[in-house]
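Entry:
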Amino acid sequence: VFSSNHIRRALCCFYTLRNMALRELASLEKYLGLKKPNKFSTQGDKKVPVMQNNNAPPLVGLVTIACHLVKEAKRPELLGDSAEGRAVVQQWLEYRVTKLDSHAEEDIKSILK
């Protein structure tokens, strides 16, 4: 039997994970100096980020959207200047999605330290 504290904590973690990706994308937009903010939402049980695009179908996934924003800002060096550099960037982005999304926000801070 779950107590109300267990349920509250689970809901809090779920809400935090959902909003964490959206906050990261909004921060990336700001860092890149993109003037026109995009519309972000989430979909599915795992709350995968979605970027609404007026000119094309929506983009789905944190890495896909992040790479799109970097290209939109004409900052390709952020994705790596060489094959090895691009591989390292992709490795860290993959790590972010596969490893960090399954932890609570307070655990993520410890993992990244």
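The CA atoms of residues 79 and 89 lie 6 Å apart.
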